[in-house]
Fold this protein.
Amino acid sequence: MLKPDYSIQIGAEIIEPKVESPLVFLRINIDVDIPADCFEIMFGISSKTSKIKKEDDVSIKLGYKGDLKDVFKGTVDNVEPNISGIRVQGYNFATKLLKLRTNQVYENQTAGGIVTNLADKAGLSTEEVSDGIRFPLYFVDDNKNAFEHMSALAERCGFNVYLTSENKVIFKKFESQEPHVFEYGKNIIEINLQEEFSPITGVMVQGESPSSFKGADTSHWLTKRQVEGIAGSGTSLLIQDPAIRDKDTAETVAKAKLGMLERTVLGTVKIIGKADVRLGDTLEIKGMSNSKMNGEFQVIGVEHFLSKSSGYTTLINWRK
């Protein structure tokens, strides 16, 4: 029988299961569409938990006896003591990107190069950053924070941007890999499917034209000849983006946006706790009577929950 296990380090204190464990419940939320991952822990009162304070470093490992995985690293943002326990909440280091506002001009840089530079300015390292679109000129201003600028670049390229459990930046397109397999009657507790229908079947992207029409290398803009890219047909979404300077890039952005609009099948699956499921992973669902629930999907959100009463479960958000 699997026995859930954990190790939580907050500041200098390490909290692990004992006969009288101070842990009441733990919840970790990780999502590709939410800037900062977060955690919430309810502790009983003990000599260790009473020392927890705001801005303490946090490292959380989950799993089963003899097999713990790193699932979260960050800092404490809030400590709420009460008569019977202490509630602790915090975020990962994506907050560094949310706090960073800068003014910078990038010349002849890829989207990946801009993301890497912004991550460096925020004091973060990268794990995997793809180049994506190359921009002859790109402006970053302090009207948006660094994460908002990264997200805008990711949307143009059809990429995802998020942080790993080690707080390293990922900026790339989803690619299917060896899946985590979950099967009805074995390790699936609950599953739900949501299917959305978008009236948009086409995308038109309009950029700003350079004086020459020889592609993205042109760097002077003297005329207003339309740069346009189209993907799909029928009812179309119009996007005007002055950062786009040539037809090839406009078409790339149009295809990326249409691809996002076509992601109409979403779902959640609740399973017996599995600490090694990460954002960007592939999951495979088998054995469901509804055929739309079977197949391979992209992991876009993970919630780990551990409590004395409910044990250890993982809720995964996925999309086709």
